[in-house]
Amino acid sequence: MLSQVESHLRSDRFPHIWCPGCGNGIVLSALVRAIEELGCDPDKTVVVSGIGCSSRAAGYLDFNTLHTTHGRALAFATGIKLARPELDVFVLMGDGDATAIGGNHFIHAARRNIDLTAIIFNNSIYGMTGGQYSPLTPPGKRATTAPYGNIERSFDIAELAKGAGATYVARATTYHATMLEKLIMAGAKNKGFSVIEAITACPVGYGRRNKMGNGLQMLLWQKEHAVTVKQAEKMSPEELQDKIIIGELYRGEAPEYTVMYEEIIARAKGKTQ
After folding, report:
1. Which helix (H) or strand (E) holds 251?
2. Helix or strand run (H / E) with residue 188
3. Domain 2-272's class?
4. Contact 109, 193 (CB under 8 A)
5. Which residues contact 109 (CB under 8 A, 6 or more apart)?
6. What is the pLDDT of residues 29-54, one digit of tens each?
7. Per-domain residue ranges of the chain
């Protein structure tokens, strides 16, 4: 008998391309378990991805899937949701895919508050294209394009999403896989734009260059550096340096884009009849 996760996978697409120790499979499993727990109809579930290591996940899933162009996953997903608002649409992106070439699409999807669930695989690096630094690479960390350390400040993806208008924002690490599953479920239930940042390890492209060890050691690093929202409330700014705050970070309310769009269509039809 196939497991809960295996029943939603395209077995003919395996073995996967991810390196040993990569955390992307953990994120993929959390997503599938969340979809299963939500009771989503597989025929009415859509998974859209861009380009990169994380975006290959869509090809392994037995839903309606699109593997799109670099940085444009949210643009494709927006079109799908506008045309078929009854569908459950999940968007998988890497840190560079979502916040560099796809940054404009990201902030405007948040601004519109369109009912999409965006899951950002944050491994702090461009893994597939050669290990370049991304907008989420921490200052001082090394990459092929920053051999002496990155001098740029990194985005706080949660604050960026919140500031742009997302109505649900959360974060978990691959060490906290159960929490990640629950946050994805909560994001999918939110009627609006939801962002779940999944901190995941790239032991080959990022960990090796920054002397963080193998995949297991990077998982333990996540455990040691993560603090919950409640824990963070009791900590000083100095104590929070180099810490990852995990859990539900923001929940708000705003009109949902496809609902407003349908209302406009109805008003326009009323005037022409």
Report:
1. strand 244-251
2. helix 177-189
3. alpha beta
4. yes
5. 74, 77, 78, 116, 118, 193
6. 999 999 999 999 999 999 999 999 99
7. 2-272
